[in-house]
Amino acid sequence: MQKFMAELLGTFVLVLGGCGSAVLAAAFPQLGIGFAGVALAFGLTVLIMAYAVGHISGGHFNPAVTLGLIAGGRFPLSQALPYIIAQLAGATAAAAVLYLVASGQPGFDVTASGFASNGFAEHSPGGYSLLAGMVIEVVLTAVFLIVIMGATDKSAPAGFAPIAIGLALTLIHLVSIPVTNTSVNPARSTGVALFQGTWALSQLWMFWLMPIVGAVLGGVIYRNLLQKAED
Question: What structural domains and CATH numbers belong to the chain?
Fold first, then answer.
């Protein structure tokens, strides 16, 4: 139960901090934090929660990471479903809190605003195609898994994994916010899509399928090509 609660809490903070920065602070008049600020917010949330509860659950906070670690031989398949349920619960709870806060501003329209949802084609921040979104989500999630597995390898320097992982997520967002608003995390995508309620739900399939494909690919690459044989 402690592991599942840690995953719920970690995902809650990730979505509240990352998506909250996008909804509430990114375009704030004259003082908005912009894409760079949102990217940093996502990276910081993973970093702080990995230090806070990573020693309890492993600090996945992401269904794609859980499945990628299974593919990489680092996590048992038997625990995947409860981990994913906990992650989805945390993401949905964070989106609910964010919705309540954002609704406190006169004129807020969750459908029109997009509510930090992920999208492609006409719902991509930069108008990027479905194919472009699929490629960026697969490649960057694979890179993310390789960083996670490398940073947490028993041969890696101890205690620094959350820093590397948080910075990797920041870099991923800096690259891909204009393309898909950056998912690489099906729970993050699902939480806000449930409240956006229209196009975000119809495009949600891509932000489950592509991050999972990328994560499994990254896990397999690290396990078979990069991990030391004695590990």
Answer: 2-226 (1.20.1080.10)
